[in-house]
Design a protein that fits this description.
single chain; about 150 residues; 9 helices; disordered N terminus
Length: about 150
């Protein structure tokens, strides 16, 4: 592994925080993610964790605020934009979610979570043919990736 690639991997506290989220240890996940500095390479991941914990605890608006602020600071983060779009979908904002997903797609060649969210948004808007095309495209890309 080159030094260049290792810079993109999350640090140990972020890995541990994601494990805490999976195990339902939200307080510990918040502690770990909350200690990440704004200048850290793990800042984006820490915002995703904070937003996920807020959402899992029923604080959808708080999660949206966290992601909106993170997206303002990191407008090229497809992962932040995708999580934000999912929350927008859950808040019945399918049109807004599609716009957010378009921004996410500009910055990422292939992010399965974004494609699944795009499919859901199109279905909610009654655009079933476009939704089928997204699903077929996702299936084709998954075959290529495997």
């Amino acid at each position: 592994m080159t030094a260049e690639k290792s810079k993109n991997l999350p640090g140990p506290s972020i890995k541990a925080a994601w494990n805490d989220v999976k195990q339902g240890n939200f307080d510990e996940a918040l502690r770990r993610a909350g200690n990440v500095s704004r200048n850290s390479r793990d800042y984006v991941e820490s915002r995703l964790i904070l937003a996920r914990v807020a959402w899992l605890q029923g604080f959808t608006m708080a999660a949206m605020v966290i992601l909106d602020e993170a997206a303002a600071k990191h407008p090229d983060s497809s992962r932040i934009l995708t999580d934000l779009a999912v929350l927008q979908l859950n808040d019945e904002q399918a049109d807004k979610a599609l716009g957010t997903l378009d921004k996410a797609a500009e910055n990422s060649f292939f992010l399965p979570e974004a494609e699944i969210a795009r499919y859901a948004a199109l279905r909610r808007l009654g655009k079933k043919e476009q939704a089928r095309e997204i699903l077929k495209s996702l299936y084709d890309k998954m075959l290529i990736e495997s």
